[in-house]
Amino acid sequence: MSRKGSGRTGNGGTRSLFTEASEPLPEEPKPTEMSFQHCHRDPLPQPGLTPERMQAQRQLCTACAVCCVFMAGEVVGGYLAHSLAIMTDAAHLLADVGSMMGSLFSLWLSTRPATRTMTFGWHRSETLGALASVVSLWMVTGILLYLAFIRLLHSDYHIEGGAMLLTASIAVCANLLMAFVLHQAGPPHSHGSRGAEYAPLEEGSGESLPLGNTSVRAAFVHVLGDLLQSLGVLIASILIYFKPQYKAADPISTFLFSICALGSTAPTLRDVLRVLMEGTPRSVGFEPVRDTLLSVPGVRATHELHLWSLTFTHYVASAHLAIDSAADPEAVLAEATSRLHSRFGFSSCTLQVEQYQPEMAQCLRCQEPPQA
Q1: Is the separation of the CB atoms in 91 and 257 below 8 Å?
Q2: FRET partner for 169 with CA separation of 20 to 30 A, picked from 36, 137, 163, 293?
Q3: Least confident of 26-35, 78-87, 162-171, 223-232
Q4: What is the C-alpha separation between 87 and 140, in angstroms, rounded?
Q5: pLDDT tops 50 at residue 132
Q6: Closest C-alpha to 86, from 233, 232, 222, 231
Q7: Is the pLDDT reported for residue 350 higher than 60?
Q8: What are the transmembrane regions (predicted)?
Q9: What element of type H or E holds 49?
Q10: In 10 A of CB 71, how many CB atoms?
Q11: Considering the entire predicted model, what is its pTM?
């Protein structure tokens, strides 16, 4: 019987089963030393706000401070002037403050890293903030439209033309200042995401796509609506100042320009609903993406193609690629991913490569979805 704890070597000697190996074991590669080119085009994003979102945060904080100051002035001025139009404008500024604070909160929330529960992270909180901004404006505007209608039915009110004119002039200046602060010229983005004015890039151009932050965009459109109303209030105040008998211009201006404010937010609401319903990005067509994948050498067919957005600027794609038996799966995967990134600006692409089978042509699951 052999001795416990020892074993026989190839040269006839014995060694302990628990002795160290004569040659050191190769060290396992550390995750931080692994190259990210094996499957990811970009390195792991750094924690915290990106430069683009830091700029958005500064814009929103500045505009929110301006909004609070002038909102307080309009409340005082509207009370002294007995003007519903001025109070309407102040209420819209209050809605601006609430929406901007909600946007700031969503910006902070979107910096939280992805988890096993929230695998995409918290990016969509930005879209929810934009939705809250639009809905709040619509609710406030609906109440003010009702009050304007009541004033048109009853003429038992008095307007102080001088106070109304002064307050309306200040309100126009305030909205111009906020619009200037929130205006975005499209700062570059490092992940290749697209902006509101997307244009496909030529493959390998290496250029950055312009990007407009969702929250700042919603706030900017919100302020533009308020600016239109402020201009209408200013015109009405001039008319009432020189012709007091035309005091009905106060509720009329509230009625007309509130409708304009509602219309100005309709495109933002449409885009928000498209994102939340996981629709195809507005500036990326299904057919161009499909044709790009089919143009990759070795790809015979594609199915299960899905395109959607986490935000207005964060696009995601997934698809199955059926390839020839002689094609190199790794090369096909790398080329298809590169084309989707460079031509359409997708932030994340998940592609499954499989061998082409003739039965795929008759498979119902492999058919393209119908037109909407």
Answers
A1: no
A2: 137
A3: 26-35
A4: 11
A5: yes
A6: 233
A7: yes
A8: 60-84, 130-150, 162-182, 219-242
A9: none
A10: 21
A11: 0.67
- Read off the pLDDT of each residue in 81-93 and give the average, rounded to a whole number: 78
Q: Of 342, 359, 341, whose CA–CA distance to 350 is shortest? A: 341
Quick one: tokens of 148? 């304007």
Beta bridge partners of 349: 317
Helix axes 84-110, 161-182, angle to 10 degrees: 20
Q: Do 371 and 230 meet the contact criterion of CB atoms below 8 Å apart?
A: no
Over residues 289-294, mean pLDDT: 94
pLDDT (0 to 100) of residue 329: 92
Query: Do 299 and 322 contact (CB within 8 A), yes or no?
Result: yes
Mean pLDDT of the residues in the chain: 75
Residue with tokens 């002064």: 166
Computed on alpha carbons and rounded to an integer, the radius of gyration of the chain in Å comes to: 30
Residues 70/170, Cβ–Cβ less than 8 Å: yes
* d(C-alpha 42, C-alpha 31), whole Å: 16
Higher-confidence position of 25 and 189? 25
Q: Taking the CB of residue 202, how many other CB atoms lie within 10 A of it?
A: 9
- Residue (of 42, 12, 143, 34) closest to 84 by Cα position: 143
Is the pLDDT score of 266 beyond 90?
Answer: no
Contacts of 339 (CB under 8 A, 6+ apart): 203, 292, 293, 295, 296
Structure tokens at 106: 């969503």
